[in-house]
Amino acid sequence: MSSTYKTEHLQLNSWEASDRPVRNDFNSDNLIIDQVLGEHVENEGIHLTTTEKARVSRPRTLVGYAGNGNSEQLVTLPVTASAVFVYREDMPLSVYDSAEDCTKVYAAFAFYGGGATSGLRLTGTGLTVYQGLTADSSVELCLNEKDGQYKVIVLR
Length: 156
What we know:
2 domains; 2 helices; Jelly Rolls; four-stranded antiparallel sheet; six-stranded mixed sheet; alpha+beta
């Protein structure tokens, strides 16, 4: 005999002392539980993926690199970045150099998939930093000066 009562949400058997459970009742309940929990666990709309869990647990990382003086340098990041902010440790974000009549830029940011200030290109775990004058010579990108020490704030 099946149970006299059923649970509210999943309609599982809820026996009274006078009920006589049979194996089919347990098997039926197990199938209902397996189906409901299986759908819940596999629903990516309500659960984080492995990549999303990593972003939540460590949303940012700080790395450093030394400038080599070349016109560009590829910096390999330890994680795939959604955005980065690069700056030289011992300099302001930018400075006007009256002797050269240009602004020297020591900081920049970039977003994965597009959008960046001059001086950076971000491709997931690859960050290209640039050194040198822009086309109109009014700005000098200073993100790879020889022996300059730089920090990169990496956002996942």
